[in-house]
Write a structure and sequence with these properties.
Arc Repressor Mutant, subunit A; globular; alpha/beta; Alpha-Beta Plaits; 502 residues; 3 domains; seven-stranded mixed sheet; eight-stranded mixed sheet; Rossmann fold
């Protein structure tokens, strides 16, 4: 406690200004923070010092040698201090190297998912981008990364799937030592951010979505707020034809469409972040994603923000997210800019308030999003060998239940690889297994979980030697490389089934 190095620089600054008798508003003005942010810091400082008010905090800080001796006051400099660019580091996600940056000195962690493209170095050439993240860094340690296949990260795997993006984020969090963080996702990054929060709720304190959508392209005319397939296909063609220039800037940031410097920066970012063929692959994957069935099962405390006139993602998509997420707060903002840092002051204020609301606002989450692998026992001669194969795949849970065995995984790829291994071992014995995704409640036996009930029903519809996957799981596996065959004989239109192909 007496070691000043164990305290954050910002906490020491605030303690010193408290000792000088400044009000929260005056401290905020001196440090370019809001009064609410200063109050939040005060709560953290009081808790660390085990005191109840500012005078007690000052007295205790003096006893511990945390304050500098009183002397002639040096007037604050009126020249803005240049903030150096955060260095780019790399974290290994298997054989793929993920580029990341860490900036800011706040006491909480904030992981940021960009949309379909990003570039960690060149983005900082835009002063609005830089100002946005420097402001976030006033109250948080901000963690930025380029997803695999994009920007400065390895591009050997091609376009990233949702699972790739979640794994990228987890490896970066591990690399920077973040045990628990807030997660913010914008545009196409919102789906990955939401699934990260639901798959690893113990690591996510809160979820923030801006201009996000659970589904980009309509299927059979639904939902009405999504993009018609033919229109989306034309957009991809136009994008490829115009790549290299400021593609669609008038839709992404209409308030900056006439700004030649912004347009030059936008074109540069697009060129550097991806090539025409690569971005086409990214957009094709984005068009196949649908996380709507999973939204009611994502119980993390959430802030959903959207601008009314957004031309890239319609505001109705944001309203739908807020309606379907059980613990969501909806904030509709004026304007039409899809890019979050353009006129981003209201977004910054809302994020700061959400992240600094305190422990009393925390929602207890007792469930996580699981991949259920169900193996029907009928016809299998040796369930002990099946159980051993399941355990080698390192699921979170394995149970014997009525009609077979079930294993719950956090990773879809690991679950599918395990199903493949079982098929190779026991396919000749008439193995039937299925894969589904849904909420699993911590400590609850598999028998009572709806995700297991659905997986068992799917396995009952499988043919001997076959692995079936529900439509809900298939829709979050876009870009994974797995191929799925249609099954016209699905037992329920509400749960279409697909065959996992070799």
């Amino acid at each position: 406690m007496t070691d000043q190095a164990a305290w954050k620089k910002r906490e020491i600054e605030i303690l010193q200004l408290l000792a000088e008798g400044l009000s929260n508003k005056e401290i905020g003005a001196r440090l370019h923070l809001s009064a609410e942010t200063i109050r939040w810091y005060n709560r953290q400082i009081f808790a660390r010092l085990a005191v109840g008010n500012r005078q007690q905090a000052v007295n205790r800080a003096g006893e511990l040698g945390l304050l500098r001796p009183a002397g002639p006051e040096t007037p604050p400099s009126t020249t803005p201090k240049a903030i150096p660019l955060a260095p780019v580091r790399y974290a290994a996600n298997g054989a793929v190297h993920i580029a990341y940056q860490v900036l800011g000195s706040g006491p909480i962690d904030l992981l940021f998912f960009h949309g379909f493209l990003s570039h960690l170095e060149l983005a900082w050439q835009n002063p609005e981008f830089a100002a946005f993240f420097h402001q976030l860094g006033q109250f948080a340690r901000v963690i930025l990364f380029d997803r695999s296949g994009v920007g400065l990260s390895d591009r050997t795997i091609g376009a990233p799937s949702l699972e790739n993006s979640i794994e990228d984020a987890c490896c970066v969090l591990d690399a920077v030592g973040s045990r628990r963080c807030f997660v913010m996702g914008t545009s196409e990054g919102g789906a990955a951010a939401a699934l990260l929060a639901s798959t690893y709720p113990e690591r996510v304190a809160g979820l923030i979505l801006y201009a996000a959508t659970p589904k980009v392209v309509r299927t059979d005319g639904e939902p009405g707020w999504a993009i018609p397939p033919d229109h989306y296909a034309r957009q991809i063609e136009l994008m490829g034809a115009s790549w290299g220039g400021p593609w669609a800037l008038g839709q992404f940031a209409p308030s900056r469409a006439a700004d030649s410097q912004f347009a030059d920066w936008w074109a540069m970012i697009l060129r550097a972040a991806s090539s025409p063929a690569s971005v086409r692959a990214v957009m094709e994957i984005v068009g196949d994603i649908d996380i709507r069935p999973l939204l009611p099962q994502i119980r993390t405390r959430t802030l959903v923000m959207h601008k009314t006139g957004d031309q890239i993602t319609r505001v109705a998509a944001g309203r739908y997210l807020a309606q379907q997420l059980p613990n969501a707060t909806w904030l509709e903002l004026p304007g039409a800019d899809h890019i979050y840092f353009v006129d981003g002051e209201q977004i910054l204020a809302a994020v700061a308030e959400f992240c600094q609301a305190g422990e009393e606002s925390t929602v207890a989450v007792d469930s996580w999003l699981a991949i259920a692998l169900f193996v029907a026992s009928a016809g299998l001669p040796d369930l002990a060998s099946v159980r051993a194969t399941l355990r080698r795949a390192a699921p979170r849970q394995v149970e014997a239940i009525d009609g077979g065995l079930v294993a719950l995984f956090a990773s879809p790829s690991r679950a599918i690889d395990c199903a493949r291994a079982l098929q190779n071992q026991f396919g000749a014995n008439g193995l039937r297994c299925s894969l589904h995704v849904g909420a699993a409640h911590v400590g609850q036996a598999g028998m009572g979980l709806p995700v297991v009930t659905a997986a068992r029903a799917a396995a009952a519809a499988a043919h001997a030697g076959e692995i079936v996957v529900t439509g809900t799981l298939r829709d979050i596996l876009a870009g994974s490389g797995w191929r799925f065959g249609n099954r016209p004989d699905s037992p329920s239109a509400l749960m279409p089934l697909y065959t996992l192909e070799t």
